[in-house]
């Protein structure tokens, strides 16, 4: 049933919607109707000027998924060897380093099994030409909130997804593979599956006061 929701409060939904990788159920089929329901929720997100320039490419064909996974693996290999990879980021806090190691292992797993994930959802936006120069927040602000709404709707229905953009290194090749027009640019790839269990918890984050600035950058929040 597409309308069977987990018994989560709003705050629980917002704080326990995780990037799910190792706990994606690669064996359980995901009905297209469930994906459609989650996308219907996503389409309620705001867009600049109510333009609604988004497009959603849902990929279930095994051959297409394998091809996308091949490009993803190439991009991930370079990422894994870079200073941006979670395993390369070290902190004074041992607990945070342990978290980084778990995230790195999880990311490795997704790269190895992406082709096996039942559904790949690519969020894209019609830019009508080239990407604008300078800060592009106004552009992507008309796509990314909807993609997050999709993840929330999926979580509420027992599915998980992992937010990733590593495929964008091969955006042109994937666009050709999926017949995406040149003026439509991809913004996020969401591998979607039912999750093994639904008992996700809030993640450990840095204290708010380490990132909160009141009225100026140099202000102290407390």
From TrEMBL:
Name of the protein in question: Nitroreductase family protein
Read off the PANTHER family from this record. Answer: NAD(P)H NITROREDUCTASE YDGI-RELATED, NADH DEHYDROGENASE_NAD(P)H NITROREDUCTASE XCC3605-RELATED
Record flagged with keyword Isomerase: no
Protein origin, superkingdom: Bacteria
| EC class | oxidoreductase
| An example molecular function term from Gene Ontology annotations | oxidoreductase activity
The Swiss-Prot or TrEMBL record describes its family as follows: Belongs to the nitroreductase family.
One Pfam match, given by its short name, reads Nitroreductase
Q: Which organism is it from?
A: Pseudonocardia hispaniensis
Keywords from UniProt, A to Z, are:
Oxidoreductase
**EC assignment:** 1.5.1.-
Instruction: Give start and end of each Nitroreductase domain.
Output: 16-192
């Amino acid at each position: 049933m597409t309308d069977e929701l987990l018994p989560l409060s709003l705050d629980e939904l917002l704080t326990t919607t995780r990037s799910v990788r190792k706990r994606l159920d690669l064996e359980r089929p995901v009905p297209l109707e469930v994906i459609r329901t989650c996308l219907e929720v996503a389409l309620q997100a705001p867009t600049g000027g109510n333009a609604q320039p988004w497009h959603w490419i849902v990929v279930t064909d095994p051959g297409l998924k394998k091809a996308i996974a091949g490009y993803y693996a190439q991009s991930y290999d370079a990422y894994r060897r870079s200073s941006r990879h979670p395993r390369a980021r070290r902190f004074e806090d041992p607990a945070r380093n342990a978290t980084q190691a778990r995230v790195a292992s999880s990311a490795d797993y997704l790269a190895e099994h992406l082709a096996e994930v039942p559904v790949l959802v690519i969020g894209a936006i019609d830019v009508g030409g080239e990407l604008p120069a300078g800060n592009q927040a106004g552009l992507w602000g008309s796509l990314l909130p909807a993609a997050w709404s999709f993840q929330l709707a999926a979580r509420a229905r027992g599915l998980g997804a992992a937010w990733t953009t590593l495929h964008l290194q091969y955006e042109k090749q994937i666009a050709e593979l999926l017949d995406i027009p040149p003026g439509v640019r991809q913004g996020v790839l969401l591998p979607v599956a039912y999750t093994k269990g639904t008992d996700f918890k809030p993640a450990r984050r840095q204290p708010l006061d380490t990132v909160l600035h009141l009225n100026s950058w140099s202000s102290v929040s407390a």
